[in-house]
Amino acid sequence: MTHPDPMTRLLDIMARLRDPNGGCPWDLEQDFASIAPYTIEEAYEVEEAIRANDMVSLKEELGDLLLQTVFHSQMAAEAGHFTFAEVAAAIGDKMVSRHPHVFGDADIATADAQTAAWEVQKAKERAAKAAAKGEVPSVLDGVALGLPGLVRAIKLQNRAARVGFDWPSTRDVLAKLQEEADEIVAAMESGDDAHIKEEIGDYLFVVANLARHLKVDAEEALRAANAKFTRRFHKIEAWLAEDGRTPDQSDLAEMDALWDRAKAEDKAAAKAAE
């Protein structure tokens, strides 16, 4: 079969994989819920390729992510919900609507002005969706439940801050952080596991707020901390391996001393790089 373009070929491949008559058993067993985790995973792999500045991997990962859209669209078409063409048409309409300075006669001269106009337009769209459902619109509408907790916390806080619901200063956030720490101690003393979980959540939410006030990318800061922990722990493993041992054959005191050694090496390397 001759295909007029690669996109049509991809759509035909997906339809064939989902064909009950000779399609792929695995693909036929899938539904929206079972595919959703793969969709999220592919998005993260796109981000990882970008972070590594690996254009070869980025091309591949973007293809994998595109396949997820095609997969969901094929399942939706089979159920009579919508088609890939409708998905593409809808996002095209949205882009035109949100860029009146490009596709209309609006005057938006700077990126900051465009960001402000974008948020206004999105707010109108959220209000329209709420009205269509007979609901009262909220400034928090549209912050996806499926986002990682830290990312969603920042987005919720930013939305609330736009209407003035925010701590006046960073010191106020720090005071709240201490208050939440004290509440964790109280919850621990009570022995109530549900209460402890709740207070830990409150503490993390305030930590995210602190990062926002200090204009620190909380997700990036946590990624850096994860990388630092991984790097230092790998050193502990390597040093123990020189003695023919693994971490489970060591003890906390020894590993803590090796951690301090790894930390000192990191600081020395950072100083030498200055």
Automatic annotation (TrEMBL):
Q: Domain of life, per the record?
A: Bacteria
**What are its GO biological-process terms?**
dATP catabolic process; dGTP catabolic process; dTTP catabolic process; dUTP catabolic process; response to stress; TTP catabolic process; UTP catabolic process
Domain annotation NTP pyrophosphohydrolase MazG-like: ranges: 30-103, 173-232
**CDD domains for this protein:** NTP-PPase_MazG_Cterm, NTP-PPase_MazG_Nterm
Q: Which UniProt keywords apply?
A: Hydrolase
Quickly give the catalysed reaction.
ATP + H2O = AMP + diphosphate + H(+)
Classification via NCBIfam families = mazG, PRK09562.1
The entry's family comment says:
Belongs to the nucleoside triphosphate pyrophosphohydrolase family.
Record's protein name = Nucleoside triphosphate pyrophosphohydrolase
